[in-house]
Design a protein that fits this description.
CATH architecture of one domain: Ribbon
Oligomer: single chain
Number of strands: 44
Radius of gyration: 45 Å
Helix content: under 10%
Distance between the termini: 99 Å
Structural class: mainly beta
Shape: elongated
Strand content: 25-35%
Number of helices: 3
């Protein structure tokens, strides 16, 4: 602060109101305090923290960033969900709970099935409406007329509500939204349409496909059949003039690129997102790396668009992108599924603390006071120490059984007739004295000494 300067030299003074308008980065009546970062509304620390004297925000729990404007979610949603802007976990379909750590059936079977609490698999309702999918979330009208397979609808983008109506993939010889129509064996061309398996040509056109004149011309890619208007293209070519390269035909619906991609000029399919395969007749699988398939930890099942992980005991997730922790951390810690490493210290309400790769080994209180080794929660004390936590120092040689150990300084108090640090040395008995002398000694000694040295006659006199 600059002394005698208006507004501490960090602002401008209003000569009429004598109030300071502080420069950016400063605050206070006289602009002598550093300001903390604020949000777009100008609220210091975004209303989620306190500003200290150095101008730094001290954020509240579950808020971060320099201005405390970024929320965080509990346990980062356990790697099984996404964190919203409101710091709330949106769990993947097979998980629930504040931090997505609890398992459930996919989307709780969407209310159209029963959940097996052991396998977490849905048994979908059947009847007038037959529900399908691992979460019983979709169905097809008329069950595709029994001429096709009902597949799941494309997942919505953003907050759009998911569709409950699947799509029919018709068997060969059938077409239509619900596979209700017979398909024509060949393309009816630009001048006709297929009606129940038969091409009906427009007036003035005939043949299969419906055409008026042969379009092949002098092309080397096809030729007109004798007595017909139809241009028969050579293998690998298509179009009225056989001048277009032909792309692979999908096996499910007989359409080029399976109707789920675009054929380029080289005869290769450019598939729509979420589809793959030479004919775009397979579903693309998720991955955590666009350059690899199934996170390089599995193979893609194109029929259902899901990854089959190489090692299901190690990897999991739709894209095999998560790594399991050893023994699920023995229920004594949390698992970082991005690395497969247990955090044994995460258990705050456990009776014991644990360690080890799978958090299965109990730790000992006070680390056995550095006087022993911990064996699964039990201290094995070094020689010279005892107690549950090896906190008690033993007396030398346990006083050899000839004395007792004091708790104050761990020293031996020997029984009569023994001496030494460990009470291991026996004191030699003194030579017997005449009766008269013994009696004299007894007059000045304790009863125990008298009994040791007096004769029976002396005792009788007492």
């Amino acid at each position: 602060m600059v002394e005698n300067e208006p507004c501490s030299a960090h602002g401008k003074c209003n000569e009429e109101t004598y109030e300071c308008k502080c420069d950016a980065g400063f605050d206070g009546i006289d602009c002598n305090e550093k300001a903390c970062p604020a949000n777009k509304e100008g609220m210091a620390c975004s209303g989620h923290g306190n500003c200290d004297e150095s101008g730094k925000c001290m954020c509240q729990d579950r808020w971060t960033s320099p201005n405390c404007g970024m929320p965080t979610c509990p346990n980062m949603c356990s790697g099984r969900g996404s964190c919203t802007a409101a710091a709330v976990c949106e769990c993947d379909s097979g998980f629930k709970g504040e931090d997505c750590s609890k398992r459930q059936c996919p989307n709780a079977c969407t209310g159209h099935g029963t959940c097996d609490e052991k396998t977490y698999q849905c048994t979908c309702d059947k009847g007038t409406d037959t529900w399908l999918g691992d979460d019983c979330s979709f169905k097809c009208d008329s069950q595709c007329s029994t001429h096709g397979e009902c597949v799941a609808p494309t997942k919505p983008i953003g907050k759009e509500a998911p569709s409950t109506t699947g799509s029919c993939v018709c068997k060969d010889g059938f077409t239509g939204t619900n596979c209700e129509n017979r398909a024509c064996k060949e393309d009816c061309g630009d001048f006709g349409e297929c009606s129940d398996g038969v091409c009906k040509c427009m007036p003035g056109y005939a043949g299969m496909p419906c055409s008026k004149t042969c379009m092949c011309g002098d092309s080397e890619n096809g030729a007109c059949e004798k007595g017909s208007n139809i241009c028969r293209c050579n293998e690998g070519f298509k179009g009225p003039k056989c001048d277009e390269r032909k792309c692979p035909i999908g096996q499910k619906n007989g359409k080029e690129c399976n109707g789920q991609g675009v054929c380029d000029t080289t005869g290769n399919c450019v598939c729509e997102p979420k589809f793959s395969g030479k004919a775009c007749d397979e579903l693309a699988c998720p991955t955590n790396d666009v350059l690899t398939t199934c996170s390089n930890s599995g193979v893609c099942n194109g029929k259902i668009g899901k990854c089959v992980c190489h090692d299901t005991d190690k990897h999991f997730g739709d894209g095999c992108e998560h790594t399991k922790c050893p023994n699920d951390c023995s229920s004594h810690g949390t698992c970082d599924t991005s690395t497969g490493v247990c955090d044994c210290k995460a258990c705050t309400d456990c009776e014991f603390t644990f360690t080890g790769k799978d958090c299965s080994v109990k730790t000992c209180k006070d680390d056995c006071n550095k006087h022993g080794k911990c064996d699964n929660g039990i201290c094995k004390c070094e020689k010279g120490f005892t107690g549950d936590t090896c906190h008690v120092k033993q007396c030398p040689n346990d006083c050899s059984g000839n004395g007792f150990c004091t708790a104050i300084d761990s020293s031996c108090v020997c029984f009569a007739g023994f001496q030494g640090d460990d009470c291991s040395k026996r004191i030699a008995a003194p030579a017997a004295k005449p009766a008269a002398e013994s009696a004299a000694v007894c007059s000045n000694s304790c009863a125990e000494v008298c009994i040791d040295h007096a004769t029976s006659s002396d005792i009788d006199k007492w």
